[in-house]
Design brief:
This protein is of the alpha+beta class. It has helices at about 75-80, 90-100, 145-150, 160-165, 230-235, 245-260, and strands spanning about 1-5, 10-15, 20-30, 35-40, 50-55, 60, 65-70, 155-160, 165-170, 175-185, 190-195, 205-210, 215, 220-225. It is globular, with a radius of gyration of 19 Å.
Length: about 260
């Protein structure tokens, strides 16, 4: 199911031994366009610290009330290696995090979750009749991952809060800014960017598929898109008051299948 990031903020995180806190931000990978971490503000039990939570640990998104149930405990969170949510996440810090929780790493894999279709399938103890992908690294064998990480220091991780408002730079000029994102909470993949075109086309929100994005630039606070102003204007519109249905998804696939080849 698709949700906007705004609808996924302030979700209560239910651990196996109590509540952890509330979601406040999301770190996404702008190379594979997937949410890698949820930034969670803990309650008074951990001095309202901000911690990073991997979608690998998410067991279930509960609809009413909207909460997230996770497979980890508050004790694990308390003793987890420190990852400063206010600073970029380094490869080394992430590797230490994955080791601590016993997660397989998705590094250097063409699929967004290391060959699995969803992140929770990477969680220790997950049972599936499907065979384990041959190219996954076992949690206790990170030698190849260490080597791969040392060769790639550009992690492509971005804060969704930080990039919201970035201007859209298209082929023939600027047009609009990033308003939000639509997330598939089965895979935590970013399916569409929500673009506000009010500076050019009053009152319209349109959806753009990530495959059109060339670069997200911190120095210029811009998102560079391989589209013209007219192509953005012709993109499917988005109404936040209307649930994103299967019909909407089919319409999007038809539009970008036709225009993206």
């Amino acid at each position: 199911m698709l949700h906007t990031l705004n609808n996924l903020k302030n979700l209560a995180i239910h651990a196996s031994d109590g509540d952890i806190g509330l979601t406040k931000d999301f770190y996404f990978d702008d190379k594979h366009w997937v949410i890698r971490y949820l930034v969670v503000e803990t309650g008074s039990w951990l001095l309202s610290k901000k911690i990073l939570l991997s979608p690998i640990s998410i067991k279930e998104l509960n609809q009413k009330p909207q909460t997230l149930t996770v497979t980890i405990s508050r004790k694990q969170v308390k003793n987890c290696p420190d990852m400063d949510s206010e600073k970029p996440v380094s490869r080394q810090c992430e590797l230490e995090y994955m080791r601590y929780y016993g997660y397989s790493h998705y590094c250097d894999n063409t699929d967004i979750w290391g060959g699995y279709s969803s992140p929770n399938m990477m969680s220790p103890g997950y049972y599936s009749v499907a065979p384990k992908p041959d190219n996954l690294d076992a949690p206790d064998n990170f030698a190849d991952v260490d080597a791969a990480l040392s060769q790639d220091n550009d992690h492509h991780l971005r804060s969704s809060n930080a990039v919201t408002g970035y201007k859209l730079d298209v082929i023939d000029g600027d047009l609009g800014h990033l308003h939000g994102m639509l997330i598939d909470t089965d895979t935590w993949e970013i399916r569409y960017l929500i673009i506000n075109t009010s500076n050019w086309w009053l009152g319209h929100l349109v959806l753009i598929a990530p495959k059109w994005i060339k670069e997200v630039s911190w120095p210029t606070s811009k998102i560079y898109v391989d589209m013209t102003q007219q192509q953005v204007k012709d993109a499917p519109t988005f109404d936040p008051s209307v649930p994103f249905s299967l019909e909407h998804e089919q319409s999007m696939q038809t539009h970008y299948g036709r225009n993206g080849e």
